[in-house]
Amino acid sequence: MQHLRQLLAIENSQIAQLLRFSLYGIEASLKQAQKELPSDPGAKLCDEVLQEIHSILQVKYQKSSELNSNHELKLIRLKEAFNIDKDLKLYLGNSQLQSQTDSELWNEMQRKLLRVPEDLATAWRQRALTLAQEVGAVEDNANLYTLPFIRDEIIYPGLSGTIQAQGLYLSQKLLPNSEIIPNNESSDLNLLAGYLLLCIKFIEIDPDLHHALKSVFSFDIISLNSKPEQQTQYIEALTGRFQRTQKAVENADPVLTLRAWIDIDEAIHSLVFVPPSDRYSWWGNLQQESRRMLKKFVDQAINAGNEVRIRQLSGLYADICALTKDDLQLDCGGNPGEVLACLRVYTRINQEESPGRVIFRASR
């Protein structure tokens, strides 16, 4: 695989171009064969092959002088070990480290670890630090890129010594400096504004982020990095829903507030990766904070005399599909037939039902 990627990356190479066109042809032929031979014993493995081909075809052309950059990486052992780890593939699919400098590689790896279960992420962070120390780098909790949020938290450390790489840090000090947050807002809106700013900033630094927000694009999961117009529309939708939530809170109507929070919760959970982050990952835990806040507004609406039922959809897709609409399907991540992410919760408010929306793994 490594040599295929290197060949595809050579600029102005007719052989590289021939290889790329051939891979496109193989990809198209296999997809057609899957449609015509759905019960073929090789159909399941064919999905994995198609994912590998798709991953290889993401390689961009580079100048020949850049092709040997991997040999100059101090963290080349880390890159190679990460890319072949079977446990990581369960959660990241065939998404591999592509960075060409040690600083970029450190950050790319750490951002990917935010998507896997915490125990696996912790083990890999320690392994990564050990490999970095072997080449003369040291952990640095002062060399950090700062993002705004409602609390202070070092997401991952930076490096100094033979490798200079920034870590990532959440800081509540940056929140008051934002134009999004008016003075003397409630703690609920402060939390919501923190989510909004953090989502926007993460979109700027993580090219792997996608969106699945139905009001922006309902038919697919869209890369925010490769589709800048979709990025703009998603951020506008996220900001618009935040502003509507502000107004609902000001009106003090528990049902309007609940509906507004359901909408902004959907926008937050529609910021996804492919495959979606594990629910026990850093990203999963972060998004669950929004769902926990949603429960608070459900209780307020019930206490005001309303009948409210809300359900976060998970488990087997076949068991919950009657409660959803316009769902999205992936062929990677999780287990076949399972819900990978609940984008919008199912609700029933005073006899009025609103379907949920999920991303699920195909059964085959």
TrEMBL record:
<protein>
    <submittedName>
        <fullName>Uncharacterized protein</fullName>
    </submittedName>
</protein>
